[in-house]
Design goal:
The chain is of the alpha+beta class. The chain is built from six helices and eight strands. The protein is globular, with a radius of gyration of 16 Å.
Amino acid sequence: MDFFVYSRDAGGTEALRADDDLLEQHWSYMDTFAESMIARGPTFHADRETVSGSLHVLGLPNIDAARTFVAREPNNRAGVYGEHLVWRFENLLGRTMWEFPGTADDPKFLVIAYSQRNPAPLTSLPAVLGERLVLYGAVSALDDAEPVGVALAVQAPSRQALAALLEGARMERETLDIEIHDWEFGGRR
């Protein structure tokens, strides 16, 4: 079973984020889940330097394991995060971020589009968007599996270009709310 975990920073945690020991604890913890990772990485404020949160999409045995994954994460235990979005995830691309064929040149963005409908099939998306998808999947509530919306990571030259891609996919017309976060591939550096 796959899960989408987006952890928002609590704010005022720059000193914790700068702690090399905590960073190593985080990476070591994530290393234990390396085989099941679909995507991971930090999100940033508009300056693309200040971290605003952390994304992890991974396979786990069950809902309790997803809750335990969040509870035991070192940054969470240290107080870095103030909120977690934890949902079931249906990987509609059928691949991981490491299999993304795009180049590393353009920025990447995490988009969370809230909707009570299932996301559009991959085949119905505009080809130009499909080519730029790093991650694309339906998200649903943990306990009752009710649709929450769609999560996607997209490589685009700018936020304006991303907005045009989303408009081309008519995503803005079919959702209740859209969050856009600057994002990059995570892992050891």
